[in-house]
Amino acid sequence: MPTLEWTGSALRLIDQTKLPDEESYVVCATSAMVAKAIRSMIVRGAPAIGAAAAYGAVLALRESDPKPGLAAIRSSRPTARDLAWALDRVLAAPDPLQEADRIARESVDACRRMGQLGAGLLPNQPRILTICNTGALATVDYGTALGVVRAAQERGLEPSVLVMETRPRAQGARLTTWELRGLGIPHRLIADGAAGRALQEGMVDVALAGADRIAANGDVANKVGTYPLALLCREHGVPFYVVAPLSTIDFHAPDGAAIPIEERDEREVTTFAPAGTRAFNPAFDITPAALVTSVITQLGVLRPPLREALSSLRVTTR
Ligand code: MRU
Q1: Pocket mutation for ligand 1, best pick of 44, 265, 292 (most atoms within 8 Å of C-beta)
Q2: Which end of the chain, N or C, is less surrounded by CB atoms within 10 Å?
């Protein structure tokens, strides 16, 4: 069962809040239900959010007043660039459902292409460090950063993965380990704070991360904890690759400061704290372009200076 599927009249989602304990599905028959599923992270990961939003827009356009549903979807996860991009595509299309299907199909094609390009950068038996979940669950299928791991396995490179737990929602611990187990790829889980130790011990050849939004200068918004990971990689001379489709690039955001960073409920962080403890819970952080070795897109591997590389891409994609 893919991450999401159009049933003919509704959007069916695997419930990512229940994994890995339970494999269950949620059927969204209204745009409000899609907005709620995105906000509550039943569906998550930028490309998956984009495709879900596209089908949510299809539902909204079938409702007597599409506006509230569309507005709820648009504001549900503000950092993921794919969300607004997909909504705008569906709203401008003559056939909204056909466009949503196209977005979903293109996303899978892009992931497979990025996988091939990324695997081409890896040595034999690469020891990979990754954050969050960037696999099939975060996309329509195959994955971005985890798609590279998958392609490496398909090429016989024998990758192994250190999976960062990814507090506070534990996407690494709950989802990435689940996917890697299903794929038969060797992996070990580490606490987020153990990344520095793993790098110091020489246990990592390359770090792979996804992105929720990439600014025109190459600054990258991704799961909180990505920025310190990129700093560690720079300190230890380990390549830090970002794997993201063109739908994640926001040419209207000049740099990371222009990217809205979602702040989530404090209770996601205070699990182990005494009642009443306050928290700061940004869902994402910004990795400056200078810390990024390359951005792997479906059109090619972008190398620094990223501002120039991205702007040539903008010309190509016009
Ligand atoms: O809060 P999430 O789980 O939606 O965050 C997901 C990420 O940060 C991913 O790295 C990003 O969406 C790209 S993955 C395909």
Answers
A1: 44
A2: C
Second CATH level (architecture) for the domain 4-108: Up-down Bundle (1.20)
With b for 16 or more beta-carbon neighbours within 10 A and e for fewer, the 208-221 pattern comes to bbbbbbbbbbbbbb
Residue nearest ligand 1's atom 2 by CA: 45
pTM over 0.85: yes
* Residues of the chain falling short of pLDDT 70: 1, 315-318
Q: Is the CB of 113 under 6 A from ligand 1?
A: no
Per-domain boundaries in the chain: 4-108, 115-316
For ligand 1, atom 14: residue with the closest CA:
134
CA–CA separation, 150 and 196 (whole Å): 25
Active site residue 212: yes
Residue type, 48: A
pLDDT tens column, 104-151: 999 999 999 999 999 999 999 999 999 999 999 999 999 999 999 999
**Domain range 115-316, CATH class:** alpha beta
